[in-house]
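Study the following:
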Amino acid sequence: MKDQELTIGTIARQAGVNVETIRFYQRRGLLPEPPKPLGSVRRYSQGDVARVRFIKSAQRLGFTLDEIGLLLRLDDGTHCAVAREIAEHKLADVRAKLEDLRRIEAALQGLVEACQAQESKVFCPLIASLRIC
């Protein structure tokens, strides 16, 4: 199969997404929509498959679609410093979320332990503490 002969279904399968995801990325400007020849279907390339895989990989790392769009615009090999800054901001966000999750974990652990220590069936320490918040 030649490079420009892939259908939308084929690139979706090869990239591990569904067709609606491809269309969504096109509406968001993340994936160009190839021209539709009169009486025919749009044809895509292996480069389009790679682009969709890039988008999905970036999403798995927590990048938003806006951030991914910016990274895609920087993909000419000369903007590594800018891409690094974007990644550093994302890393700081992830670290902040992890710290929040650790605080939540500690609070929940304390509430679970209070519930386990409670012998009375009159009130639940977990529910009582949530009413205070």
In short: The helical segments are 8-15, 19-27, 46-60, 65-73, 80-117, 125-132. The radius of gyration is 24 Å.
